[in-house]
Design a protein that fits this description.
The protein has two domains: 2-96; 109-352, no CATH class. The chain has helices spanning 2-52, 57-73, 79-96, 225-235, 250-269, 283-293, 301-304, 309-315, 325-331, 335-341, 347-352; strands spanning 116-121, 128-138, 141-142, 148-149, 152-158, 162-171, 179-186, 192-199, 217-223, 240-245. Helix content is 44%, strand content 19%. A five-stranded antiparallel β-sheet has the order 9-8-7-6-10, with helices on both faces. It has eleven helices and ten strands. The chain is globular, with a radius of gyration of 27 Å. Helix 4 (225-235) packs across helix 10 (335-341).
């Protein structure tokens, strides 16, 4: 009768030792996570001050670092430093959120206008009819990447003649990163290409780091393919372009385009910031497609690394062409065909000739 009691006592003793040890581990991990998050938040705050604080960026960033480090090293314990880092981050974030985008800057000539669309309502409920008139469709005449004559056109499209969506992917170095451009195909009109980009000022260039901060306004460029595609294949150096036919139906293409045009009109009325993480060329495509279809794709790492998004779409059955993926990608590379087509009025047809999935 005594042995079971001794066994029970031994078991209780082991559990008693295990619970405090587990508690210490949980608290230790939580504390480590807190300091990691705090360090990242303060690193962001310093970068935000350095990048987005006009005129006083170096002074502001240096003063912030000095205050936080002084709280850590010149006061006893870690609590004052943690308080200084937390309060400092909140103050910088509150200031950063007051920065507003502008429509009035010295823009580069190829982005100094924003597109907007007029859609005829088919009934009294505000539903979009078939005829859409788009203003400021870009159709630049290039002599080189930096020497060009801007042309802005007004074009009319019949949504009942919309046949589908094609996807261009442009690579300029890393196979992990690409710039996607959607092109809407019509039976009776040239394709309408839409490229989501940063709206650059004169003398400004894109920086991936600055793209995470409030340095660039967002622009939706609605353009002729001989503009946005030929720029990348014929004039920019070391850019490789691939053209895929998607399997999206005309009905889905219509819904996606209408959602795009809503965003285009909103930007024409009120500017917004570009953000390399939350509002960029890839995330905005997902946003519009999800809004149009009501289907939100499950998260996949290839949706974040845009250079692999074609591989993801292929696995989901969204790309036309009955080939293994590597062979499909080889066949949809269009740089040579685009250089040969150059300024031909049949540019769009020539770059699609004999490509998988195209009639």
């Amino acid at each position: 009768m005594k042995m079971p009691r001794r066994g029970l006592a031994a078991s209780s003793g082991r559990q008693g030792r295990l619970v405090p040890g587990l508690t210490r581990l949980v608290f230790g991990l939580a504390e480590a996570l807190f300091w990691l998050v705090l360090a990242m938040a303060n690193l962001w705050a310093v970068a935000a001050l350095y990048i987005d604080l006009p005129g006083w960026n170096l002074v502001g960033a240096g003063l912030y670092v000095a205050i936080v480090l002084s709280a850590f090293f010149l006061t006893p314990g870690l609590r004052p430093g943690a308080m200084a880092g937390t309060v400092g981050f909140v103050v910088v974030l509150a200031w950063w959120l007051t920065l507003m985008p502008s429509d009035v800057r010295q823009w580069q000539a190829d982005v100094d206008r924003t597109a907007w669309a007029e859609t005829a309502s088919s009934n009294g409920n505000g539903d979009v009819g078939n005829i859409v008139t788009i203003h400021n469709v870009r159709n630049v005449d290039y002599r080189s990447e930096t020497d060009y004559t801007p042309r802005w056109e007004t074009r009319q499209y019949d949504l009942s003649k919309l046949q589908g969506i094609d996807l261009f992917l442009t690579y300029w170095g890393s196979p992990w990163i690409a710039h996607p451009i959607l092109s809407f195909q019509f039976a009776d009109a040239p394709p309408l290409a839409i490229s989501v980009e940063t709206r650059k000022e004169v003398g400004e260039s894109y920086s991936a780091i600055r793209g995470f901060f409030r340095q660039y306004e967002l622009i939706y460029i609605l353009a002729d393919e001989r503009d946005v595609i030929r720029l990348r294949t014929n004039y920019r150096k070391d850019e490789e372009v691939f053209l895929y036919r998607t399997t999206l139906t005309p009905e889905t293409a219509r819904a996606v385009l209408i959602d795009y045009l809503r965003a285009v009109n909103a930007l024409h009325q009120q500017p917004a910031f570009y953000n390399a993480l939350t509002s960029n060329c890839t995330t905005n495509i997902r946003i519009h497609t999800a809004a149009a279809t009501g289907q939100h794709p499950r998260w996949n790492w290839r949706l974040l690394l845009s250079g692999k998004v074609d591989e993801y779409l292929y696995e989901q059955g969204r790309l036309a062409g009955n080939f293994p993926f590597d062979e499909l990608k080889r066949r949809v590379h269009i740089n040579y065909a685009a250089r040969m087509a150059d300024q031909s009025p049949d540019f769009s047809a020539l770059i699609r000739a004999s490509r998988p999935g195209f009639p």
